[in-house]
Design brief:
Helix content: 10-25%
Distance between the termini: 43 Å
Order of helices and strands: HEEEHEHEH
Strand order of the largest sheet: 4-3-2-1-5
Largest sheet: 5 strands, antiparallel
Number of helices: 4
Number of strands: 5
Strand content: 25-35%
Radius of gyration: 16 Å
Shape: globular
Number of domains: 1
């Protein structure tokens, strides 16, 4: 019985998370040249708001300057990653006009969800 419970508890760890996009709440996006030319910025998507012809992204801007997308991915895994700006609202074109990559995904905590409300 105990082994069945342990097996069930561990099986959820093996689930593949959904494929995150630049507008997926919980996605970490690294962007080149967003805040400074030639540097990567790391943001976390909190929410999105779709209008008829535009989409706004609610983001947390992290206080990190990764050297490349691989380093951004490793930094995004840290739940204690320092925050520079709790919430910033930008059109999604701000992301798409820069070289960017979704580097990590983690579901939002209740505290993170509240930032966008």
């Amino acid at each position: 019985m105990t082994s069945a419970l342990l097996s069930a508890a561990c099986s959820s760890d093996a689930l593949t998370p959904p494929e995150a996009r630049i507008d997926t709440p919980g996605a970490f996006v690294a962007m080149e040249g967003y805040e400074a030319e030639g540097e990567l910025a790391l943001v976390r998507i909190l929410d999105r708001l779709q209008f008829e012809d535009a989409r706004l992204l609610f983001m947390t801007v992290h206080d990190a300057r990764p050297a490349d997308f691989d380093e951004a991915r490793e930094l995004a895994k840290d739940p204690e990653l320092p925050i520079r700006e709790l919430i910033r609202i930008e059109p999604d074109t701000v992301v798409t006009q820069h070289a960017h990559e979704v580097v990590w995904f983690r579901t939002l905590t209740e505290k993170e969800k509240e930032r966008a409300q």
